[in-house]
Amino acid sequence: MYAGARPPVPGHSVRIQPFPYPLIMQETGSISIHTENIFPIIKKFLYSDHEIFLRELVSNAVDATQKLKSLAQLGEFKGELGELKVRVTVDKEARKITISDHGLGMTAEEIKKYINQIAFSGATEFVEQYKEKDAATKDQIIGQFGLGFYSAFMVAKEVEIWSKSYKEDTVTAHWVCDGSTQFTLDEPTGEHAKTERGTDIVLHVAEDSDEFLEEARLRTILTKYCKFLPVPIEFEGQLINDTSPIWTKQPAELTDEDYKKFYQELYPMSMDEPLFWIHLNVDYPFNLTGILYFPKVKDELQFSRNKIQLYSRQVFITDEVKDVVPEFLMLLHGVIDSPDIPLNVSRSFLQADAAVRKINTYITKKVADKLSGLFKQDRPGYEEKWGDIGMFVKYGMLSDEKFYDKAKDFVLLKSVNDKLFTINEYTEHIQANQQDKDGSTVVLYTNDAEHQHGFVAAAQERGYDVLNFDHILDPHFVGQLEQKLEKTSFKRVDADTVSKLIEKDTTTESVLSEDEQTKLSDLFKSAIANEAMHVKVAALSPQDAPVVITQNEFMRRMKDMQRTGGGGGMQMFGAFPESYDVTVNANHPLTQKVLAEGGEKIAKQAFDLALLAQGMLKGEALTQFVKRSTELLE
């Protein structure tokens, strides 16, 4: 758009129409656009948030400054650079906002070209002209010019440009437009002329945009979008930005304290320090810099989608980065800066393309490499952090196949004894003792070690190991592991009686005849009288419980996944019905007593004890159990 700008001296009064001062030239005309309705379109549709106007105008002023610096480096500008900064001022009484720079400036002809003819782009032409001379120039120009300038009309009823080019023997150019396609362009002289190069954009704020006349509102916008721009931004005499944020520096220049300090700067409300971080710095096949922080993630799954900030050449673009960053990495915090990420014309939305996919893949690889390096270099330190990063790693494995391929070597499984294993370490640990009759490894786990303590203890008494899968993601994670690992099955400890969890060729003989087992089954069915409870009699060890209540592993897992939004197409069938298996131990003395005495009362008591062990005995049933227990004791 414009090549730079600087307004009249603050406080200097300028009358826009008519022009009473001497002119070298004056011209009126129509802006070269394809529709008479361009300004309503800009105001209503192009930019969803009117505050964006300040980002666009300040970014353009920074561009004009960067261009001048580039020309000076190339030897094409030999004058004094002077103080290169962008100033933003507001005059509430006069209803004016002014954005001033000391950059390239523009002649009247350049204003006609870059402002009136929207199809042209000052930035594009500049890059094309100088890319052969200085490859770094391209990365110093913020964005495509043209429509960005016209965002000013979202808040202004009239906009002025006062500009003086850096070129020798040029005069002040003054452009005025009231938001229609008509403009006035003149070259004021005398006291009305600018004495220094640069450009001033003066916005005469419309009546419906009073909020932008408030200093606090403007400061908030500048802090949000311009906090890290590469040219000093001054607002009402105070510096707004850090021109050299740490992501623009080399890691060797930085200390851990630098990274932690920057994290607090990004997230001042955070009470925790980051666990660790990744410094991104790549220039081929795309340009990408940034810092990604691993925060301490709480037990609940936190889908924080506004923690990673996207910049383009240090201009804040958005914190909606789902197209650039894989979904599971949205749990990270930090900054990504890339001029190669394609944006729509308003720079508000990302446009997915091949470059974005490459960046996405690169970031995933860098995160996986970082975690792998930490695991290999400092396993004890990695294990200490596992409680904070475990959910993140599992979420990544579930979300991204390539991440799974890398993470399978550093994801950790935690036993109920708090010992941590890799997948390979754990399968080797249990292989000898936890194989079924078909030679498949059986992994036992609990999702609530306290609630399922009896089942866990029973498994441990038999020498079995039990894993702790108690996170909201674990039902899905267990399903994934079962699909990925050969000849391996996963069973929750309360999915069946202990002797049936790992079926081997060994069997236990029943002390009851078939008729006696049938009679015992009928007694318990009558005592329980609940269709959701499916009674069966089995020959277990006399040391096992008289009655065990379990839930079918597949049905229970589907219910768990359904509660966390999984279960795939099973959702259409609604909630899964409650269904439990009640296994009566034929070899336990208590059940034999039930059979001998025909005692439904004792059968009911034994069943309620099993419910109580599962935490399933509540309300009236619990009251009746206590009453019955008292009677039996008497």
Instruction: Give the tally of β-strands.
Output: 22
CATH homologous group name of the largest domain: Histidine kinase-like ATPase, C-terminal domain
Helix- and strand-based class?
Answer: alpha+beta
Biggest pleated-sheet summary: 9 strands, mixed
Uncertain residue segments: 1-24, 119-124, 137-146, 567-573
User: What is the mean pLDDT?
Assistant: 82
What is the top-level CATH class of the largest domain? Alpha Beta
How is the secondary structure organized here?
Elements: E1 23-30, H1 38-46, H2 52-73, E2 86-91, E3 96-101, H3 108-116, H4 122-130, H5 147-150, E4 156-164, E5 173-177, E6 182-188, E7 198-205, H6 215-226, E8 233-235, E9 238-239, H7 256-266, E10 276-282, E11 288-294, E12 308-312, E13 315-318, E14 333-337, H8 354-377, H9 379-399, H10 401-407, E15 413-414, E16 420-421, H11 423-430, E17 441-446, H12 453-461, E18 466-468, H13 474-484, E19 488-492, H14 498-501, H15 514-528, E20 533-538, E21 547-550, H16 553-563, E22 580-585, H17 589-597, H18 600-614, H19 619-633
Parallel strand pairs: 2-8, 12-14, 17-18, 17-19, 20-22
Antiparallel strand pairs: 1-6, 2-3, 3-7, 4-5, 4-7, 5-6, 8-9, 10-11, 11-14, 12-13, 15-16, 21-22
Structure description:
This protein is α+β, with helices and mostly antiparallel strands and 634 residues long. It has four domains: 23-239, Heat Shock Protein 90, CATH 3.30.565.10; 246-373, 2-Layer Sandwich (Ribosomal Protein S5, domain 2); 413-501, Rossmann fold; 514-566 and 578-633, Four Helix Bundle (Hemerythrin (Met), subunit A), CATH 1.20.120.790. 35% of the residues lie in helices and 18% in strands. The chain has a nine-stranded mixed sheet with strand order 1-6-5-4-7-3-2-8-9, with helices on one face. A five-stranded mixed sheet has the order 10-11-14-12-13, with helices on both faces. Strand 15 (413-414) and strand 16 (420-421) form a beta hairpin.
